[in-house]
Automatic annotation (TrEMBL):
<dbReference type="GO" id="GO:0003677">
    <property type="term" value="F:DNA binding"/>
</dbReference>
<dbReference type="Pfam" id="PF12728">
    <property type="entry name" value="HTH_17"/>
</dbReference>
<feature type="domain" description="Helix-turn-helix">
    <location>
        <begin position="5"/>
        <end position="53"/>
    </location>
</feature>
<protein>
    <submittedName>
        <fullName>Helix-turn-helix domain protein</fullName>
    </submittedName>
</protein>
<dbReference type="InterPro" id="IPR010093">
    <property type="entry name" value="SinI_DNA-bd"/>
</dbReference>
<dbReference type="InterPro" id="IPR041657">
    <property type="entry name" value="HTH_17"/>
</dbReference>
């Protein structure tokens, strides 16, 4: 079963982007974060859309 939400750490691994890059993208409205209580998550579909728009391949796309 494929994950629907990533932690920030999982998102950095999946996207090959740094933590600061993801937070900057969120700050500039390019990436949506979802809060579950105190936990911050990034929906996989949102992360994929951000990566496609930025022209960046995720680790999963590189491996394929």
């Amino acid at each position: 079963m494929e994950k629907r939400f990533f932690t920030i750490k999982e998102a950095t691994t999946y996207s090959a982007q740094g933590r600061t890059t993801l937070y900057d993208a969120h700050k500039h409205g390019e990436l949506t974060f979802t809060k579950f209580g105190n936990a911050t998550r990034i929906e996989k579909a949102d992360l994929d859309a951000y990566l496609n728009k930025a022209g960046v391949k995720s680790q999963a796309q590189v491996a394929a």
